[in-house]
């Protein structure tokens, strides 16, 4: 290649995309080096023992994570393979966001914010540990990025298959992920509706070429615009949700066909909290429930209140399950459920007061923002290598002393809920402005993705109202990750010109850095924006 050809290639969009990939790969390799094979707590240790077949499978934690972990161990022979999967999913999503931002016409420095998602303190804090919450979050984010690609890049509809697999995995590893997935499914349904309408429009144009007058073609296009986009979006969204639900059912059935999964009735842990902390002692004893159950609840409540705890009674004061072992089923589960129906559901105001108190504590506080290597007891009990503690000397001050100490709101649900509301407001304003647009060709818009991510984060936060068991930051990780990505996309929208011609220039001016990006294609029509 000539020197000028080499120079052109080095300044080409492809070269910049590769540079973004190199940055993501370097950071991933460094992170894996410092935190291999991943941090483990009691929940993760239990799933690891299931994955290695040292204990039977149970449904206290969704068994799909243990099953995936078992497959990875069979392939690689290393329990750290789950950390590799976790980092790999996030790396692919961060790189994809950087490339999409770059190719949308934003300055190159903005595209660097895609890989930067991986180094933010609230992301670093959770990626060290093999939480099912983290697995869920990175799976959803990569699914959104894959759907984005199908929206912007022609003939990439096959990426819907891994996107759906990732969404099925997200709901499989954490059942309340359904709150986060519903807005994503609506976004996916909207994308499918637009893909179908655009393809139908292209087919109509092709069919009328040489056989119909311009007036007829214009009439066809006008009638297409008078369709029912809301109905089509709702139908498409429902199809996406049904596919995800069916995928979860099929996955659970496939696992159950291979291994016996013990039924533990984990939902009774939430029912126990509701009964213990919302039903007065006098009514509890008059309820007609077995005396052994009501006495146990009454004595455990006194113990919890002395500890200053009004939730998570199973772990804090009840003594765990019937056998006293962690994750063992509660005794009198049927009687507890009937007690909940009789004394909790029948007093909705009392129930709402209790759940409001619990949710308020979760919403305005946070805990367990970082899992240090020194908390390695459960890992050692499970025979899981605790890993090198040197990573803590680098990242624990960054997360706890710098970020948490200086900007504590970054780890609080209320902050991310506020960010979500602001982004939704900006998205609505953009929609109102776009609905009366002038008809000029516009750059591809990220507002549908920003809206979907913000709505998903908000739904997930408030979806914890009836079930929140603690104020751990891992329960807020998906909103933090989703809104970080949404903010990057919003900055990309803000830093580029709103209206461009087909060759990428705006108002007769040119910008070498912007022009280096690939100009919008046919997928960035005004209606799709």
What is the compact description of this entry?
66% of the residues lie in helices and 1% in strands.
% residues in beta strands: under 5%
Strand order of the largest sheet: 1-2
Unreliable spans: 206-224, 436-443, 499-529
Helix content: 55-70%
On the 0 to 100 scale, the average pLDDT is 87
Radius of gyration: 26 Å
Class inferred from helices and paired strands: mainly alpha
What general outline do the C-alpha atoms trace?
globular
* Distance separating the two termini: 40 Å
**Main beta-sheet strand count, sense and barrel state:** 2 strands, parallel
The arrangement of helices and strands along the chain is HHHEHHHHHHHHHHEHHHHHHHHHHHH
- Tally of helical runs: 25
Regarding quaternary structure, what we see is single chain
**DSSP strand count:** 2
Region (Disordered): 499-529
Keywords: Membrane, Transmembrane, Transmembrane helix
Protein name: Glycosyltransferase RgtA/B/C/D-like domain-containing protein
Transmembrane segments: 14-36, 82-102, 109-128, 134-150, 157-172, 178-196, 230-248, 413-429, 450-469, 475-494
Keywords for this entry:
about 525 residues, 2 strands, globular, disordered C terminus
Question: Describe it for me?
Answer:
The protein has 529 residues and is mainly α. It has 25 helices and two strands. The chain has helices at residues 3-10, 13-35, 42-51, 63-76, 81-103, 108-111, 113-116, 121-127, 132-152, 160-173, 178-208, 214-225, 229-258, 268-278, 281-285, 291-307, 313-316, 333-343, 348-364, 377-381, 390-406, 413-435, 447-462, 477-494, 512-515; strands at residues 57-58, 261-262. The chain is globular. Mean pLDDT is 87; it is low at 206-224, 436-443 and 499-529.
């Amino acid at each position: 290649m000539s020197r000028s050809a080499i120079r052109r290639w080095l300044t080409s969009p492809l070269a910049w995309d590769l540079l973004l990939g190199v940055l993501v790969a370097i950071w991933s390799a460094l992170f894996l080096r410092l935190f291999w094979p991943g941090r483990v707590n009691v929940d993760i240790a239990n799933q690891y023992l299931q994955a290695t077949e040292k204990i039977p499978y149970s449904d206290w934690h969704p068994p799909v994570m243990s099953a995936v972990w078992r497959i990875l161990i069979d392939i690689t022979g290393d329990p750290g393979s789950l950390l590799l999967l976790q980092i790999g999913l996030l790396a692919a999503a961060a790189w994809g966001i950087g490339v999409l931002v770059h190719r949308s016409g934003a300055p190159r420095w903005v595209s660097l914010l895609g890989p930067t998602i991986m180094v933010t303190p609230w992301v670093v804090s959770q990626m060290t540990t093999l939480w099912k919450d983290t697995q869920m979050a990175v799976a959803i984010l990569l699914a959104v990025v894959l759907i984005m690609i199908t929206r912007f890049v022609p003939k990439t509809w096959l990426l819907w298959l891994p996107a759906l697999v990732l969404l099925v995995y997200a709901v499989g590893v954490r059942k309340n992920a359904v709150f986060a997935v519903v807005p994503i499914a609506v976004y996916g349904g909207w994308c499918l509706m637009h893909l179908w309408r655009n393809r139908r429009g292209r087919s109509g144009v092709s069919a009328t070429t040489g056989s119909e007058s311009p007036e007829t073609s214009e009439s066809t296009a006008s009638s297409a615009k008078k369709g029912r986009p809301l109905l089509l979006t709702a139908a498409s969204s429902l199809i996406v949700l049904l596919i995800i639900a069916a995928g979860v059912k099929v996955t659970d059935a496939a696992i159950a066909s291979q291994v016996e999964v013990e039924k533990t009735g984990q939902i009774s842990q939430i029912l126990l909290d509701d009964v213990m902390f919302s039903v007065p002692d006098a009514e509890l004893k008059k309820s007609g429930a077995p005396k052994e159950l009501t006495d146990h609840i009454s004595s455990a409540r006194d113990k919890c209140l002395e500890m200053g705890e009004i939730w998570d009674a199973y772990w804090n004061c009840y003594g765990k399950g019937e056998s006293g072992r962690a994750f063992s089923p509660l005794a009198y589960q049927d009687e507890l459920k009937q007690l909940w129906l009789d004394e909790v559901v029948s007093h909705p105001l009392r129930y709402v007061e209790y759940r409001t108190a619990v949710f308020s504590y979760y919403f305005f506080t946070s805990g367990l923002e970082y899992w240090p290597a020194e908390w390695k007891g459960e890992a050692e009990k499970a025979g899981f290598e605790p890993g090198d503690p040197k990573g803590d000397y680098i990242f624990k001050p960054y997360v706890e002393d710098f970020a948490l100490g200086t900007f504590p709101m970054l780890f609080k649900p209320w902050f991310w809920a506020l960010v979500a509301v602001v982004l939704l407001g900006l998205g609505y304003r953009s929609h109102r402005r776009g609905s009366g647009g002038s008809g000029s060709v516009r750059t591809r818009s990220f507002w549908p993705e920003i809206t979907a991510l913000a709505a998903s984060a908000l739904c997930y936060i408030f979806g914890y109202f009836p079930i929140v068991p603690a104020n751990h930051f891992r329960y807020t990780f998906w909103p933090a990750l989703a809104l970080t990505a949404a903010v990057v996309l919003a900055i990309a929208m803000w830093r580029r010109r709103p209206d461009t011609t087909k060759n990428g220039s705006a108002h007769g001016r040119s910008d070498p850095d912007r022009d280096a990006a690939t100009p919008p294609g046919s997928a960035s029509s005004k209606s799709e924006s």
